[in-house]
Every structure is written in structure tokens, then in C-alpha cells.
Specification:
Elements lengths: L12 H34 L2 H28 L2 H24 L5 H29 L5 H29 L2 H19 L18 H16 L2 H22 L1 H8 L4 H25 L6 H20 L5 H29 L2 H33 L2 H17 L4 H4 L6 H19 L1
Length: 435
């Protein structure tokens, strides 16, 4: 892994992983219900792309401005405690919003604040959880675990919209929000009893000050800059988030205004995309992906582009064609994301992963609000279909030209840890010849 000091994986890692994973599965489902309920409520109350764009922008702000610093803190703090506090804070914020709905005093800015707070918790939660995987799971199983996580995401995207639509029809929105509080408590439970190993990096324990955090952030930037392939991956991630963020945020408007559908039509599209993620996750967890994980990313990117173009050219009476394309897009998205996450987990040193994942989150988050800002007036005037065609075409082009970029195709063999391993091997060979 490119580090002289390594954290040993516990022999009973399977039981620990399943317990933590199961609790987080409930939490993710609860979060999906909240997201679905709030987006649908705002769509029906305002019908405004600007409102949906503002809500999505609030979601990305913590990632953009705090992401790199959060990663530095995660690499020094107890990661289990970070996850527990993140889940707890999100649950409290959601409970407050449920109270506002219950008392009929809720306003749009209340929802914006909740979205911001939930994202703030997620900004800590994501790098803490992802960087913990390489400390809980042996390296040879990381790609399969990434596939299992994608199955979870897909399952949540199938069950979440369907369950969300059912709950929105049968109970007030504050009841849906209360469900998320319960699922957060379920997620926290296993973490109270199961430890998560901390990375061993050989650094002295120091008091965390602003100067220390800035130094750690700078070290993270230098590490990524020294791995040129990652810079290209980050650039692609920024472009794809710029392009695809509006397709998700404005999807309810496409359902209501283009396909003339209702909440169940939105649920069908999102559920089929989730079903595709499940199939993609099964494929990745059983197969393990290409030996060179970069090809998982490129294959997923190309197929996602093709499905986006299909959705964009689908006629108004072709809802089920669009639904099928969303299913295939879910499969491709899983292969792409699973490959990217397992690549980072396998190659980046554990004591650096919090910062690297936060940088990925930050750089991707920067692009999404920009995409929403640019796309909002386009969608208001032309609808979402032209944007689907545009983003799909760019994605296909990126996937096509990528094999011609050596630093990208050789990203794994050119990583700092691989270079260090080759240097050590050469030094041992030289020493052997001298003997």
C-alpha cells in the first residue's frame, strides 16, 4: 500500500463489516426517503427549476468549502466517532424540520438550511466511512465490497422512491422525515460496540491546530499532484458532475412537464435506475471488474453517455423507453463509481485516504452547482431533453479519447505507492548483486 507501517485487518473482519454495513444501509434508506419527499414537495409547491437548483446548490456548499479540511481532520480523528457524530447531527436537524412541518410553519429557507446541514454531516461521513473500508476489508476484496455498496445504493434507489411515493400518499411529510431519524439511530447502534481500526502512519500525536490542519491539507494536495493520473480523474469527475447534476435535480420537472406524469412516474424512473445499480453491483461484486480498474471507469462513462443521449431523444409518449435507458444508466454508473472507489482504496495509503476522498468530493462538488447555474435557464426555456443529449455526447467523447492518455491508462502503475515499490525492488536487486 505504499506505507511502511500497516494496520492489520482483524481476522473476524466479515462479521464486523456486515454489522456496520447493515446499520449504514438503514441510514442510507432513510436519507433517500427524505431526499425524495423534499424534492417532490418543492416540485409540487413551486414547480420551479430555480428552487430545485438552489436546494441542490446548498447540498454542495459544505463539500466545496470544507471538504479538504474535513479530510485532514478525518485522517487524524477517530473515524468511528466521526461517523457516529455525523449521523447524530443529521438526525437532529431532520427532527427539527419535521417539527416545522408538523406546526405548519415551514418555509423554503428552512429546507435549504436542512439540506445544508445534512450535507455538512455527509461531508464528514463519506471520507470517514470510505477510508475505513481499507482498514476493515482485505485489499483483494475491496472491488467486491465496492460492488456490494453499489448494490446497496441501487437497492435504496429502487426501494426509496417507491416507499417514498407510498409514504407521501399515506402520511404527512413530517412522518416521512421521522422515519429518517429512526434509521439514523439504527445505523449508530453497531458503531457503539464495534471498533474501526485507525491507520498507522508513524507520525507523532500532536494537538490539532489550524496550522496542523493546513499542513495536512497541503500534504494531501502534494500527494495528489504527484499522482498525475488522479488529476485527470478529478477533471473528468468535475466535468461529469457539471453535466449530470442537472439531470437528477430537474428530473421531477421532466416527469411533470414533458411526460405529463405524477409522483409514481418519478418513482418508476428512479427505481429502475436503482435496479440497474443493483445489477451493476452484482456484476462487479461477482466479477470483480477489470484487472486494471481504470477500464471500469471508462466503460461506465461511455455507456452512461449513450443512455443519456437516448433519454434526450425520447419522444413525449416514450416514457417506458426512457425508463429502460435509466435502468442501463444505473448499471453503467455502478461500474464506473465502484471502479473509481476501489481504485483509490487499493492504491492510496490508508493514512491519506481521508484527504484524497475529501478532495474527490470537493472537486466534484464544485462543478455541480456550476452545472445547475448554467443548466437552469436552459431547462426553463428548452426543457431537460437537450441537456441530456449534450451531457451524453461529452461523456462519450471523454471515454473515447481516454485510452490515448498514458497518465490515465497507467494510473495504477504510476501511483506514488507503485513507484516506491519499484524503487525498493530495484534497491534490493542492486544490494543482491553487490552481495
Amino acid at each position: 500500500m505504499g506505507s511502511e507501517l500497516k494496520t492489520e485487518i482483524p481476522q473476524n473482519w466479515v462479521g464486523r463489516f456486515i454489522a456496520i454495513w447493515s446499520g449504514q444501509a438503514f441510514s442510507i434508506l432513510g436519507s433517500r426517503l427524505v431526499s425524495f419527499a423534499l424534492v417532490w414537495w418543492m416540485t409540487k409547491e413551486t414547480g420551479s427549476a430555480v428552487v430545485l437548483a438552489t436546494s441542490t446548490t446548498m447540498m454542495y456548499l459544505p463539500q466545496i468549502f470544507l471538504g479538504p479540511f474535513v479530510g485532514a481532520l478525518v485522517d487524524r480523528w477517530n473515524r468511528r466517532l466521526v461517523i457516529i457524530l455525523s449521523d447524530s447531527a443529521v438526525a437532529v436537524a431532520t427532527l427539527v424540520l419535521a417539527f416545522l412541518f408538523w406546526t405548519d410553519t415551514v418555509q423554503l429557507w428552512h429546507i435549504y438550511v436542512l439540506v445544508f446541514l445534512r450535507s455538512l454531516g455527509g461531508t464528514f461521513h463519506f471520507p470517514a466511512m470510505q477510508s475505513s473500508m481499507s482498514l476493515l476489508v482485505p485489499e483483494k476484496h475491496l472491488a467486491r465490497v465496492a460492488g456490494i455498496n453499489q448494490i446497496l445504493d441501487g437497492g435504496v434507489n429502487v426501494l426509496g422512491p417507491a416507499l417514498g411515493a407510498f409514504l407521501m400518499e399515506t402520511m404527512p411529510i413530517q412522518g416521512v422525515l421521522a422515519v429518517d431519524v429512526v434509521t439514523a439511530l439504527i445505523a449508530i447502534g453497531p458503531l457503539l460496540f464495534i471498533p474501526i481500526p485507525q491507520p498507522v502512519n508513524g507520525k507523532p500525536v500532536v494537538r490539532i491546530t489550524p496550522r496542523v490542519v493546513i499542513q495536512d491539507v497541503a500534504e494531501g494536495f502534494r500527494y495528489v499532484v504527484g499522482w498525475r493520473g488522479v488529476l485527470i480523474i478529478l477533471s473528468f469527475a468535475m466535468v461529469l458532475n457539471f453535466l449530470f447534476a442537472p439531470t437528477g435535480s430537474f428530473l421531477p420537472l421532466m416527469v411533470t412537464e414533458y411526460f405529463k406524469g405524477g409522483v409514481w412516474h418519478l418513482g418508476v424512473l428512479e427505481s429502475l435506475a436503482g435496479a440497474g445499480m443493483i445489477i451493476g453491483g452484482v456484476i462487479l461484486s461477482v466479477w470483480g471488474g477489470f484487472r486494471r480498474k481504470i477500464f471500469n471507469i471508462l466503460a461506465g462513462m461511455g455507456v452512461m453517455g449513450c443512455t443519456a443521449v437516448v433519454i434526450g431523444i425520447t419522444p413525449e409518449n416514450g416514457f417506458f423507453l426512457a425508463a429502460g435507458a435509466f435502468f442501463v444508466e444505473g448499471v453503467a454508473n455502478t461500474i464506473m463509481n465502484g471502479g473509481a472507489i476501489s481504485l483509490i482504496q487499493a492504491v492510496v495509503k490508508p493514512e491519506m485516504q481521508g484527504r484524497v476522498f475529501s478532495l474527490v468530493q470537493c472537486m466534484s462538488g464544485v462543478a455541480s452547482p456550476l452545472g445547475l447555474l448554467v443548466a437552469a435557464p436552459v431547462v426553463e426555456k428548452l426543457g431537460l431533453q437537450p441537456w441530456f443529449i449534450f451531457c451524453g455526447s461529452v461523456s462519450i467523447i471523454l471515454a473515447a479519447i481516454s485510452p490515448m492518455i498514458p497518465d490515465l491508462i497507467n494510473i495504477e502503475s504510476n501511483s506514488p505507492s507503485s513507484k516506491q515499490s519499484r524503487l525498493e525492488s530495484q534497491e534490493r536487486s542492486v544490494a543482491g548483486e553487490e552481495d
